[in-house]
Design goal:
The protein has 283 residues and is an alpha/beta fold. The chain contains 10 helices and 6 strands. This is Glycosyl transferase family 1 domain-containing protein.
């Protein structure tokens, strides 16, 4: 939450950033936290002896082109995905932080709504609410596609294995992906959902919005400070009704401009501030 006395500035949207025909997909998908790691490494801020945090083994899955295909495990480094590597190098020279209009696809409006959940597989992200909502949509014979991304840790909530079986016909992607493949899924998805009980900032949600996704977030935690009221829900029933409406009219999402200015989190906007802060040293 904001500190007492802090006044969040009102976001201004220039006329050229708003349009009615089709949402935009960015040519550059890096926000400031991607380049910050490179800056920290270049300034030597990380100790050579600092231990890495053990997160347990990562399991990476193939991207599935159709829901009916099976999801086979692909070990990291198998070459199934574009290598994440230093992905800033590919985009740095052309970095503009602009959001060009993507090409029109005549059949795009007929495709099922693509819902993405890009969060850690842990209880504080409340996957039970997310999957129970999707199972309810399935029971109502509402069509949709699903990508469940994010990292797994030592203990995975049991709802994931249940959802993997019950929602199998809808699944496009399931599990941790390389950085390149992860961003490609965000660029292809329509709606990003958070059901979190605990969130300090919501990096995954902002990344997805920057890639063109329509957000649905709890009206709680940090979300009301970042997202306008139209993207917030207060109850599980509101979340269900919002998703049901968007599943039945995916064109609403695909023609919508999300009223969140992600450029304020771009490396172009914040680089000078970070460089000054890190160059100042300790008092």
């Amino acid at each position: 939450m904001a500190q007492p006395g802090f006044k969040r500035p009102t976001l201004q949207f220039p006329a050229h950033s708003l349009y009615s025909m089709r949402r935009r997909r960015p040519s550059n998908v890096d926000l400031c936290w991607d380049d910050l790691l490179s800056l920290l490494q270049s300034t030597g801020s990380r100790s050579e002896t600092e231990p890495s945090v053990g997160l347990g083994p990562r399991v990476e899955y193939k991207v599935v082109s159709r829901p009916e295909e099976k999801l086979d495990e692909a070990p990291i480094g198998s070459g199934e995905f574009p290598s994440s590597g230093n992905h800033q190098e590919d985009l740095h020279e052309s970095r503009t932080d602009q959001r060009p209009v993507s090409r029109e696809d005549p059949g795009d409006q007929m495709k099922p709504l693509h819902i993405v959940w890009p969060h850690r597989w842990e209880h504080d992200k409340n996957p039970e609410l997310f999957f129970s909502t999707l199972m309810k949509l399935k029971e109502k014979e509402v069509n949709f596609n699903l990508s469940v991304l994010g990292e797994t840790f030592s203990e995975v909530p049991g709802i994931f294995s249940e959802a993997r079986l019950r929602l199998d016909p809808h699944i496009l992607n399931w599990g941790f992906l390389s950085r390149g493949a992860y961003l490609q899924v965000l660029l292809q998805a329509d709606v990003v959902v958070s059901t979190a009980r605990h969130e300090f900032f919501g990096v995954a949600m902002l990344e997805a919005v920057h890639c063109g996704c329509y957000p649905l977030c709890p009206k709680a935690l940090v979300y009301p400070e970042i997202f306008p009221a139209e993207y917030l829900y207060s109850t599980p029933e509101q979340l269900f009704k919002q998703l049901q409406r968007l599943c039945r009219r995916p064109d609403i999402v695909r023609r919508h401009v999300v009223k969140v200015d992600t450029s304020s989190y771009s490396w172009t906007s914040l680089k000078a501030h970070y460089e000054a802060l890190l160059s100042a040293g300790c008092p």
